[in-house]
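Late entry, written up from scratch paper. The run itself happened at the end of the previous shift, but nothing got recorded in the book at the time, so transcribing now.
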Amino acid sequence: MASESDAAKDGFPNGVDLTLHPTAQTLAARSLEFLKEVQNLTPGKELEKRLNRNYGPGNEYYEDFCKYIKQGLEEGWVATANIEGPTYRRGKISLPVAENLYMSLTAVYFDSQEEFSGQYHKHPYGEINCVVPIDPTFELEGLPVGENWQGAGWTSLGPGTHHYPRSRGGKGVAFFFLPSGRIAYDAKPGEPQPLSI
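Output as recorded:
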């Protein structure tokens, strides 16, 4: 059986053991409260606007997510799997199960002053993304490419969209919710985007 430290090196592929990490347990519980409020809304541009208007900086959910993600980085259970060295890491916090309305919870850590592009991927059912700056200048790119850089707040990409996750401005975390945990790495740059962009 793999140890907790072995799982951490792989980004906790089965999610973080919440019984061993009280902050992760609190984050998961708080996420469920948030998801109950947005569960019937479709990821995409309109949801992104709504999240930034109603759940952005100053909102209790947003502030709690930032606090717990930052604590998780310090405690060593957030984004533990190196993708391209220690400056681009990922890790599942929770798999899509009934207890979190079949949404997976994942965190990706970025550390780059210059624009950095991560792994190209597609969101079959869309994505809700909480942008957690560690450095105040951190930004994450939404869609359309080159037109939608987001600091503290939210991005939301519609079903079928695909992109390079891009960051700039220092350290930060993308804390994201995927319906049914669906993400695909078979999309190719240059393929047409769906109308939901």
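The two ends are 43 Å apart (CA to CA).
(Scratch paper discarded after transcription.)
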